[in-house]
Specification:
alpha+beta; about 325 residues
Length: about 325
């Protein structure tokens, strides 16, 4: 199981949804950078349930315990280790699912791959793991802003109506302004490929498109090309169908991409499935589950974007 992300700035996460804690180790973060811990708290709050009827009723305080790599609020250049304790977990809620494979969950595939799985909320497959990404991503976002003036913004796209007892798909639109030109690597490690890899690592991600994306289908080359000119000595693009990336390298224009998430698979409607002893059953899932993903996933998209860009820059 690959639990690490990045090449130069490396985040390794650990922990299960209903275990004692989740956490991470961030290695490669530069020294002498002062951290705004209030921003970390705010980032975690944006990932946490807001109390909306479409979100889980699980309420975790998500208080970060910093274990290493920071002294008096300043990074040391050594690995930054941290944990966030799970205080509102109820593993007994999943006792009835210990031998049942939930449709569209990773229950079946984890068993096929490892011969064992954690039935407590999906274990490592749960989106609870993303807490560690948001902690680390907040540090990366702060570094990008203060060092280079890079700004990351997200917009949530959610359908108007969600059927009773069911869920719907949703999306997050991400914009990066201020990314320096000339960052990224061509051929097999293109910047858009790194961003896509980051987004597809987020639980429930179903598609990634940057720039014009699927709208490029049927467009003419002359319409899709981003023409250029100099204005007052500065290079300017007249459009941005490329989404701020050409040949896998940043152009200096706004980087734009969309991430689509599947409907939450835990629904309270009856569904046909099977057990690990080859029995057919009719399953009705109860418990504390979101009904739409994007509102809480936006913080994770933002964090994975920051980690990817910082990794490319340093």
């Amino acid at each position: 199981m690959n639990n690490s992300f990045g090449e130069h700035l490396v985040l390794t996460t650990f922990g299960e949804s209903h275990g004692p804690a989740v956490g991470g180790v961030l290695d490669g973060f530069p020294s002498r950078f002062r951290i705004d811990f209030d921003r970390v708290v705010a980032a975690l709050a944006s990932r946490a349930p807001s109390g909306a009827a479409t979100e889980t009723s699980r309420r975790e305080p998500d208080e970060v315990e910093w274990l290493s790599g920071i002294l008096d609020g300043v990074t040391l250049g050594t690995p930054i280790a941290f944990i966030v304790r799970n205080l509102c977990q109820y593993p007994e809620d999943y006792d009835a699912l210990r031998h049942v494979y939930r449709p569209s969950h990773a229950d079946l595939t984890y068993d096929l791959r490892y011969g064992i799985r954690d039935p407590r909320g999906g274990g490592r497959a749960s989106a609870r793991e993303t807490v560690a990404r948001v902690v680390a991503g907040s540090l990366a976002e702060q570094w990008l802003e203060q060092t280079l003036g890079v700004k990351i913004e997200t917009t949530v796209i959610v359908p108007d109506n969600i059927p009773d007892g069911d869920s719907v798909g949703s999306a997050v639109r991400c914009s990066v302004v201020g990314m320096p030109a000339g960052k990224g690597t061509p051929v097999f490690s293109k910047l858009q490929a790194r961003l896509a890899d980051a987004m597809f690592s987020i639980p429930a991600c179903r598609s990634f498109e940057y720039g014009s994306g699927a709208a490029a289908l049927g467009m003419s080359g002359s319409a899709h090309n981003d023409e250029m000119e100099y204005r007052d000595g500065s290079l300017c693009f007249l459009s941005n169908h490329a989404g701020g990336i050409l040949g896998g390298i940043s152009t200096g224009e706004e980087i734009m991409f969309n991430v689509v998430f599947k409907p939450v698979p835990s629904v309270s409607l009856p569904q046909h499935t099977v057990t690990d002893d080859r029995q057919n059953v009719l399953l009705v899932i109860s418990g504390r589950h979101d009904r739409v993903i994007a509102p809480r996933a936006a913080a994770v998209v933002r964090s994975m974007t920051a980690l990817t860009l910082m990794d490319q820059i340093i």
